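User: My collaborator sent over this chain with a note saying "see what the structure looks like." That's all I know about it. Can you take a look?
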Amino acid sequence: MKGKTFNVAIYIRLSREDGDNMESESIANQRNLIHLFLEKTSEKLYYVDEYVDDGFTGSNFDRPSWKRLLADIESGKINTIITKDLSRMGRDYISMGEYIERIFPERGIRYIAINDDIDTLYETPGLEFLQFKLVFNDYYLKDTSKKIRKVVKSKKEQGQFLGWKAIYGYKKDPKDKHKIIVDEEIRPIIEKMFNLVIEGKSPKQIAHIFTKEHILTPSVYAKLNRGMKSTAFELWCPRTIEEMLTNPTYIGNLTQGRRKKINYKSKKEIRTPKEEWIIVENTHEAIIDKNTFDTVQLLLKKNKNNKTCSKNTQLLSGFMYCKECGHAIGINKSSDKKRNYCHCTFYTSHSKYGLCTPHCCNYNKLEKKVLDEIKKMCNKYVDSSTFSNKVEEIKKKNDIRIKKQNEIKTIDKKINNNLMYIDKVYEDKLNGNIDIEMFKRLTIKYKEEIEILKNKKEEIKKELSYLSKENTNKAKDETLKIIKNYLSFDNPSRNLLVNLIDKITISEDKTVEIYYKFKVL
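Assistant: Without extra context I'll predict from the sequence alone. Here is the result:
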């Protein structure tokens, strides 16, 4: 190889995502170091071109300049690559090993990592520790990614918006990139979407309506080019509609973390379970009021439970369940198309196994019976003198109250621990383990902490007392409003019904039981 001419490509990469020190690893510093190396060498290393990927992670090789470099290698323009160190080329252990130990040798490419003392043309000391360095760089990337995720999660939990683009219906606040404001152009579309669900439309039907009315989809409105080659590029997708309908961001509660990357090396994202979403309340202006949002969530759930959901969804579809097996009661038309009848869906699917019974009954008669019973119950409680007392029990196990009560329990534990510490310190003083000054200092410290904890406990108690009163009054008003709305309609809608009852069970002997949302009924 002596006397051979080497056509050199300088490769430079920098990424804040990898935890790079932006000063020491700067583009200029890398460039200067490599050019200084070329000036001092006695070999025939001829600089051909520079390839810079600024802002691209080392976890993968999906980078524009790296791809251009590979193309120049294929064309024979380049036969030598020089980087400041191994991490500048990449940090992925598997891919780096593949390039250095297989791809480069097969194509006759010489690779030099200056600071790591690696030169694939010679048996340099750095090559002996190559695997260790690659593993370390990969671990560094993983550790950095973990730290960044923690920082990002913390900021999200503080209510800071960290997305590159706001959800459809909102846009980034030009005065603060970590806040979002309503996009007034889209507000009517979001309101229409929720109202259509209230009117009984499914996500699929809404998607069809929006497509027919030529309403721009979120990706088209944002001028994204994703899926342009698809015939469905400008069509609304039911899944998109459903995701929007279930997003609490529309009621002013910033919701982030609905998707996450598989791992730090992959760009692919997966949907996260609802319990893992990061939701911070009251961070921005709401487009939809909470009552409407909650009603829509209940309707979506009922529609999902309704396996026979169609354009003509029946009033009680999704509400009815078999008393014996617990599965849904479906609604079908008779063979002559003149009447609707109910049946146990589990029996229908497994009739030959005898796992349940048909539970057949006339749907129209059942609906009238159920509505009459609900109206009777509503009238009873509107007139009942004990109504107010029963309403007070509705929110007894409210999530917020339970959280406050748990906080008090935690504070009590901390107070007891500090009292134990004071006793321990006193024993240590008696046994001569600590002097009087140390005893006084520690005792004062623990007593001050106890006083702070007691004050905090009183604050939470006041909050709990106010919360109880507020929730009781609110529950009373909301319950009365729902019942009066129900009674004012001759033919109540599903959105009224869904706020009033949880489910209806039908027994084999045709006994009907109604389970109400509110314990007072």
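A starting point for your reply to your collaborator: The domain at 6-149 is CATH 3.40.50.1390 (Rossmann fold).
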